[in-house]
Each structure stands twice: as structure tokens, then as C-alpha cells.
Amino acid sequence: MSLTNGYLKSTERIMFVDENDFIKKYRGLKKYCPRAYKYLIFEIMNKHNYSDKVGKYEIELPTDERFKMVYGQIKLIYTRTSKAIVLEDIKPSDILEDGYMYLLNTYKGVPYRNEKDKFKIDMAMNLVGYC
User: Fold this and answer.
1) How confident is the model over 76-122, as pLDDT tens digits?
2) pLDDT value at 31 more than 70
3) Higher confidence at residue 98 or residue 5?
4) Run of H or E including 96
5) pTM for this entry
6) CB 88 within 8 A of CB 103
């Protein structure tokens, strides 16, 4: 599976720390956070919005407020080298991997895995007053 489809300069390459793990999270993102997925595909990959300096970076992807309150901000973590971009991870990893493996139910508009997640959703909604 190619995530780049020729969007990079000919001298640059996309590499992965663990390609299988990354693709699982990528597909979970597609299913449960389509806005973040579209931003990743069309803004980051397509327009090549990576930093030009060598180093490790995080890009915050658009995240629904309810999802953010329960699981945290969705982030793409990558490392830039002189000739390549190494895609490392998409955070929060747990929910994205589980979303790839299983069909998750939703509660108050947020996907959840178990009763602990359901409790976190209730707590977050009560704090903000979404009820």
C-alpha cells in the first residue's frame, strides 16, 4: 500500500518504523476520524507539508472535541532526515488499533472499546456539560 503515490520530490522517500503497525492505525483513523484522515491525505501527504529541517516532529490533525476529551489529540509523529521522511506513529495508538481490529460501538458520538472508555466519555461529557 502506498501512502504517498508520488507526492514527494524524486530525491525523498517515505519510510516507516513499523509499516504494518502504522497502516493499522491509518485505517482505524479512516474509519473513526474521517476529518483527521482527510487532512492527513490531502493536506499533509498531497501538499508535502513536512518540515524541511532534520529532526523529530509532531503534526496535530483535526480532532473532534468529544474524541479529544476522551482519548486526546490525534497526532502524526515523524522524523525528517536529509533524504527521507520516516513515519513513526499516529497517536492515540490504542483506540486506532482497536478500531482497525474490531467494529467499535459509539456512545454519545464517541467510539468506545469497553466500560472504562464509556465511563471516561460520561465523565468528559459531564465536565463540559454535553450530557
Assistant:
1) 999 988 888 899 999 999 999 999 999 999 999 899 999 999 999 99
2) yes
3) 98
4) helix 93-101
5) 0.82
6) no
Average pLDDT value for residue range 8-36: 86
Q: For the range 49-57, what are the long-range contacts, defined as Cβ-Cβ under 8 Å and sequence gap of 24 or more?
A: 50/78, 50/80, 50/85, 51/80, 52/80, 53/80, 54/80, 54/81, 54/82, 55/79, 55/80, 56/80, 56/88
**86-118 burial, b for 16+ CB within 10 Å, e for fewer?**
ebbbbbbeebbbbbbeeebeeeeebbbeeeebb
For the chain, counts of helices (H) and of strands (E): 5, 6
**Is the distance from CB of 74 to CB of 63 less than 8 angstroms?**
yes
CA distance 61 to 83: 24
Q: Give the Cα separation of 122 and 58 in Å (integer).
A: 29
